[in-house]
Amino acid sequence: MPLPDPFREHRIDADGTTIHAAVGGSGDPVLLLHGYPQSLVMWRDVAPALARDHTVVVTDLRGYGESDKPTPDDANRRYAKREMAADQVAVMRSLGFDRFDLVGHDRGARVAHRLTLDHPDAVSRLAVLDIVPTRHVFGHVDRALAHGYFHWFFLATGGGVPETLLGGAPEFWIRTMVERLLAPGVTIADDVMAEYVRYFSDPACIAATTADYKAGASSDLEDDEASWTAGDRVTCPLLVLWGEHGFVGKAYDPLAVWREYGTDVRGRAMPSGHFIPEEAPEQVVAELRAFGM
Fold first, then answer.
1. How many whole angstroms separate alpha carbon 115 and alpha carbon 98?
2. Which helix (H) or strand (E) covers residue 179, if one does?
3. Tens digit of pLDDT for each residue in 19-31?
4. Domain positions in the chain
5. Which of 68, 106, 130, 212 is catalytic?
6. Ordered strands of the 238-243 beta sheet
7. How far is residue 170's CA from residue 271's CA, in Å, rounded to a whole number?
8. Which one of 59, 110, 126, 167 has the largest count of C-beta atoms within 10 Å of its C-beta?
């Protein structure tokens, strides 16, 4: 399911990992990174609007969609956000962009956060959608998190448990994971859901995306703690958006949390559940434009 005109698909080598991308528009560059359990298709209503006056790049993260799915490693480094962020920097440089605006949702926002810490000169502005930092999440685990984000712990389980169970019922898993996090009364179009189910029915995608969560609970935390201890913070302008019907806004004070991790933070709740770009695309575009994108 390609994005509509003016987008054209590309397959870009990122230091040995091929990343699937769609590029459209002209003007200052913006990179959009999707979340779990999705692909670049999630930006289908946001990317064309931004492409009216920007060069918009949307990609499938390593392990997702049409991008390469390297075999996970025992050290949980192959799907560390540091590696996934390096992919995206390589993509943008191959397109001729050394500096760009960056927007991420869910897992893509975690990649975007790490990218901004590791490559601060590459990011002009950062927008993160419906997350607080991984380090904060794992440092404040309670019963509400265990119920609301149970998949963080399930997908990070070893021994092939999540891979085996998801492989037995991928459509049930994807539909359940998406539908439980939408705002009341909101649905995702059948053809879009079918696309997500198709991707996540691939054993290589299941293995890769569970490795993403395993990294989140191990190597990513190591990197995040090292950055925190070193005093690394997001110094570019940072926009934080969260769904008013979602877990993040109910469980945390997102702006207060992010102000510990960034020096120039603003944001607000959106009229949506977790999947903000799909549930409230016009409002997302309006917020990004007001932010200077």
1. 13
2. helix 170-179
3. 999 999 999 999 9
4. 8-290
5. 106
6. 8-14, 17-25, 54-59, 28-33, 100-105, 123-129, 238-243, 265-270
7. 29
8. 59
174 three-state secondary structure: helix
DSSP string, 185-254: T----HHHHHHHHHHHTSHHHHHHHHHHHHHHTTHHHHHHHHHHHTT--B-S-EEEEEETTSHHHHH--H
Under 8 Å between Cβ of 105 and 112: no
Q: Which of 20, 105, 113, 274 is catalytic?
A: 274
- In contact, 14 and 54? CB cutoff 8 Å: no
Distance CA 108, CA 177 (A): 17
Q: Is 69 helix (H, G, I), strand (E, B) or coil?
A: coil
Establish whether 20 is a catalytic residue: no
Look up the pTM and report it.
Answer: 0.97
Task: Please say if 274 is a catalytic residue.
Answer: yes
The domain covering 8-290 belongs, at the CATH homologous superfamily level, to: Alpha/Beta hydrolase fold, catalytic domain (3.40.50.1820)
Cα–Cα distance between 283 and 271 in angstroms, integer? 8
Query: In angstroms, rounded to a whole number, what is the distance separating the alpha carbons of residues 129 and 108?
Result: 9
What pLDDT, in 10s, does the model give residues 142-158?
999 999 999 999 999 99
Per-residue pLDDT for 221 more than 70? yes
Which amino acid appears at position 134 of this protein? T
